[in-house]
Amino acid sequence: MAAPSSPAPGVLASPGAWWDARLTRAGLRSPVARDALLAVTLAAVMLVGLVLTVALLPGEDLVRPAAAPWVVVVVVLQSLAVVLRRVQVVACVAVVVVCQVTLVALAPDASVRSLAPFVAGASAATVLPARSAARLVGAAAAAEAAGALLLADGLLAGGQHALSGVVVWGGSLLVGLHLATRRAHLALVRERADAAERERDARVHAAITAERAHLARELHDVAAHHLSGMVVQAAAVERLVGRDPDAARAGAAWLRDQGRETLDNLRQVVGLLRSDDRDGLGPLPGVDALEHLVRTAQALGDDVTLVRDDDATGLPPLADVSLYRVAQQALTNARQHAPGAPVRVRVARTAGAVLLDVENGPASTPVRGDDRGGTGLLAMRERAALVGGTLDAGPTADGGWRVHLRVPGTDGPSGPGGAA
């Protein structure tokens, strides 16, 4: 993967995400390279601190002049051991402890202590299992305390060094365990979010597949009705050939147009699944069935009104069915998400298209889980796309919801004697 993926919605980025992005841009991509930068930074900070301490307290003589160069060497070596914190954490802790005991021996009165012990202890808690990390850090604290008691000038100074070491190692262990727990929690949250997203994608895919199967069944029914009408019309043309050639030619032209339209519809069904759970003998609903749909909704207690232009007809059969189904789904959504709100259904014709608008007012009471982006909206979009139309859905200015469908249509009903 070329770039780190964005966290799933609702999942917080890890605390180091900001630094991770910037270190990557700086060319420090491997853990060892980043730990090397950390080690150099720790060494530089510690050396600057030593210089400032000596400069600000010139009369204290905290570090003997003969031991000063060795103190610098040990501090640098202790900081550089941090490079091993992820690849060899036990070795890292061991080197840090040895260096810390050496610093006690070189400067028993100075209490020289860098950040390396804290970093090593916290790293052990994030790399190793909790019990192993606790044993390792406990052993490091005990070793440092024993060395301090043996090498410091006097029991009191040794006790101070030992107590300081125990506090630093214990604190680093707690911080490391906290970081490890947080990382595990974030990983679990991301895993659950990814699983939820995969489940949602599976549901959406299943819904789309089911909708396509339903569309295929309806398209099969459209073709069956057309072919039945063509058979009847062909029989009429056969009888008119000798008696009325003009009428026969008109009937033949109608057969040609219907055959072309049926062929186009059948081409759309290629690739769509179909199960034989419907005999296809019943009439297919369309624009003309919207009045019955609205009356049914009103009988259920919905406040629905229908406004339909007289010339909003002449749709191809599949587009006619799709417009009806979109209106049906939109009314269902309005009933579910805004129960009791007034709903207005309008069907109008424009140049070369028929428009459907279903708009409901705001819900009188909040509805739990009011999310219009579910499979119902996906099904409506799928229907619109199948017939070459477009569908837009979204909230209105007053807090309601509007569904707008545009489907291409002919100029009006055609065919001698009506459509089959």
Keywords:
alpha+beta; 61% helix; rod-shaped; 420 residues; disordered N terminus; five-stranded mixed β-sheet; disordered C terminus; 11 helices; 3 domains
Structure description:
This protein is an alpha+beta fold and 420 residues long. It folds into three domains: 17-197, no CATH class; 208-269, Up-down Bundle (Single alpha-helices involved in coiled-coils or other helix-helix interfaces), CATH 1.20.5; 287-362 and 373-408, Heat Shock Protein 90 (2-Layer Sandwich). Helices cover 61% and strands 8% of the residues. It is built from eleven helices and five strands. The chain has helices at 17-25, 31-56, 68-80, 89-106, 116-127, 130-151, 155-243, 245-269, 290-299, 317-337, 375-386, and strands spanning 304-308, 343-350, 353-360, 390-395, 401-408. It has a five-stranded mixed beta sheet with strand order 1-2-3-5-4, covered by helices on one side. A hairpin with a 5-residue loop joins strand 4 and strand 5 (401-408). Helix 6 packs antiparallel against helix 7 (155-243) and helix 7 runs parallel beside helix 11 (375-386). The protein starts with 16 loop residues before the first helix and ends in a 12-residue tail after the last strand. It comes from Cellulomonas oligotrophica. Residues 322-408 form the Histidine kinase/HSP90-like ATPase domain. Its EC number is 2.7.13.3. It catalyses: ATP + protein L-histidine = ADP + protein N-phospho-L-histidine. GO terms for molecular function: ATP binding; phosphorelay sensor kinase activity; protein dimerization activity.
